[in-house]
Design goal:
The complex is a heterodimer of chains A (263) and B (238).
Chain A: E1 12-16, H1 21-32, E2 36-41, H2 44-56, E3 60-65, H3 71-85, E4 90-93, H4 108-136, E5 139-144, H5 157-177, E6 182-189, H6 198-201, H7 204-211, H8 222-233, E7 244-247
Parallel strand pairs in A: 1-2, 1-4, 2-3, 4-5, 5-6, 6-7
Chain B: E1 9-12, H1 18-29, E2 33-38, E3 46-47, E4 50-54, H2 60-74, E5 79-82, H3 98-124, E6 128-135, H4 146-166, E7 171-178, H5 192-196, H6 207-217, E8 228-231
Parallel strand pairs in B: 1-2, 1-5, 2-4, 5-6, 6-7, 7-8
Antiparallel strand pairs in B: 3-4
Helix pairs in contact in B: 1-6, 2-3, 3-4
The chains are: A alpha/beta (263), B alpha/beta (238).
Bound molecules: nicotinamide-adenine-dinucleotide (NAD).
Chain lengths: 263, 238
């Protein structure tokens, strides 16, 4: 029987981009379920503040500096985690970035910046942990894609492409390593209130317009995504791999001609 | 332990089937009150937290009566599980004979009628969740059964339409697309060939499906609607 109070007891879990937004919500929820957490983020000071908050509430959390685009930093970080806990059970590739520009306004440098963090970061993360997981004959990886990885998004050519790549990279790796007991799935949030989207969502007009396109009539909370991550990280989803979870209040399940919801 | 469905009333179709039993045991542990659909003519058992109701899923009247009995007993309905009760693929092999029509009639129509009759109750309860269990052939072509692929693909997009039309009442609707599970039906079947095509290299067991249904039924998935979760050990992506 699954213990829904402590779904992640005895699990060593690494979350990238855990210093704010969705990653922080995941870290906080996972901590209450008994996980031994490591947060890897370029915003090291902010990550330390999250560590302090979680430890203060009785959780187990260590903040470490990580740029997900740097292969050597991944190697060092995974070595450190394994030296400390002997293992790594779950990796949440959550770090991500966005440059909101249409294709024609985007320079190659900007394009590469987005692809580098969102795609190469996930590739490097999986490459760093999978050998350890193969040795353990078990492992679990959760990759943060987006609804933008399922449909074309306005003013987000690079972001959409990067998140589409995360989706299929997830499936390719899942098929490859399933027989080693490694599960790999993706999460596709819609519009979630976080520092990444605050500029848009704090604008009352824009928020109202956006809400009209969401069947459930509201933007999502970081906690909505964290609950899905918890579900995927736990044994409640033990037969799921190469699968995806869309958390968007219904935003991507319908088609409309005028971009707004008919009520 | 935190119970995920405390005080919630859950209607499960095909309640006495393999999946019906597995689901009702788990849901009861999580505090749900259960209404289990059983074939007409069955002698119905009743306890404080659990009733059986006879129902013919392809008849609107029958749905309405069953739901009336349920809401009289428990006062409300919060969750509808359109349970998986498909024949094995072999039984629907000849895709365009009468089996095609009866399969689509039985599965697609009963989900339509179930939603139609249940939504007013979910609305009255201030919202709720509909979970439809279908095969992974809702998303991909089936080598064995066009009928199954048609009914399940239809249920998949029906579920999205329900989601988009009734979200304003806080009603959510999602599908679970199932791969191969070790059920009573597969007991005497050689599954070596299919297992070799599954990335996880094994069939799923009942526990591995029912917790997904629990997740979609509960408030922990309250921002998830109009979508599907594939539970197939990677089968349909291989
Ligand atoms: N907020 C949304 O609406 C939304 C929707 C869909 C998907 N997502 C995805 O969810 C994830 C988290 O989003 P968020 O809204 O919390 O964003 P956020 O900008 O608030 O947080 C992103 C985090 O990633 C870290 N980060 C960025 N680049 C990094 C790098 N190179 N190395 C290490 N860490 C790095 C940042 O320091 C930050 O802590 C992202 O992958 C994002 O694309 C968000």
């Amino acid at each position: 029987m699954l213990d829904y109070d402590r779904l992640l007891a005895h699990k060593t879990i690494l979350i990238t981009g855990g210093s704010q937004g969705i990653g922080k919500a995941i870290a906080k929820l996972f901590a209450t379920h008994g996980a031994t957490l490591f947060i890897g983020d370029i915003a090291t000071d902010q990550a330390r503040a999250v560590e302090k908050e979680i430890v203060g509430q009785g959780g187990k959390c260590t903040a470490l500096s990580l740029n997900v685009t740097a292969e050597q930093e991944w190697t060092d970080l995974v070595n450190k985690v394994v030296a400390e806990t002997g293992t790594i059970d779950v990796l949440v590739n959550n770090a991500g970035t966005n440059i909101r520009k249409p294709l024609l306004e985007m320079s190659l440098t900007e394009w590469e910046q987005v692809i580098n963090v969102n795609v190469n970061g996930v590739f490097l993360g999986m490459s760093a942990v999978i050998p350890r997981m193969i040795a353990n004959r078990t492992g679990n990886i959760i990759n943060m894609s987006s609804v933008a990885g399922l449909l074309g998004h306005l003013k987000a050519a690079a972001y959409s492409s990067s998140k589409g790549a995360v989706r299929s990279l997830t499936k390719a790796a899942a098929v490859q390593y399933g027989s080693h007991g490694i599960r790999i799935n993706s999460i596709h949030p819609g519009m979630i209130y976080s520092p990444m989207t605050a500029a848009t969502l704090d604008n009352k007009e824009q928020l109202e317009q956006l809400e009209k396109t969401i069947p459930l009539g509201r933007v999502g909370l970081t906690d909505d995504v964290a609950q899905a991550a918890l579900f995927l990280a736990s044994d409640a989803s033990s037969y799921m791999t190469g699968s995806e979870m869309v958390i968007d209040g219904g935003q991507s399940c319908y088609f409309t001609f005028n971009g707004s919801f008919p009520w | 332990m935190r119970k995920k469905l405390e005080e919630k009333v859950v209607f499960i179709t095909h309640g006495s089937s393999f999946w019906g039993k597995a689901l009702s045991d788990l849901f009861q542990e999580h505090g749900a009150k259960l209404v289990l659909g059983v074939p007409p003519g069955t002698k119905c058992a009743q306890t404080d937290n659990r009733i059986e109701v006879p129902i013919q899923y392809t008849e609107e009247n029958s749905w309405d009566n069953a739901l009336k009995t349920a809401s009289n007993k428990f006062g409300q309905i919060d969750v509808l599980i359109n349970n998986f009760n498909h024949p094995t693929a072999k039984q629907t092999l000849n895709s365009l004979d009468t089996t095609f029509y009866s399969t689509v009639h039985n599965y697609l129509n009963s989900v339509f009628l179930g939603a139609k009759s249940t939504i007013p109750h979910l609305k009255a309860a201030g919202g709720g969740s509909i979970v439809n269990l279908v095969s992974m052939y809702a998303n991909i072509g089936s080598p064995a059964s066009s009928a199954l692929a048609s009914s399940d693909g239809g249920i998949r997009t029906l579920s999205k339409s329900i989601a988009v039309q009734y979200a304003k009442y806080n009603i959510r609707s999602n599908c679970i697309l199932m791969g191969l599970f070790a059920t009573d039906r597969l007991q005497n079947t050689d599954t070596t060939v299919s297992t070799s095509q599954i990335p996880m290299a094994r069939l799923g067991n009942a526990e591995e499906l029912i917790h997904v249904v629990l997740h979609l039924s509960s408030k922990d998935s309250w921002y998830i609607t109009g979508t599907e979760i594939i539970v197939d050990g990677g089968f349909s992506n291989a």
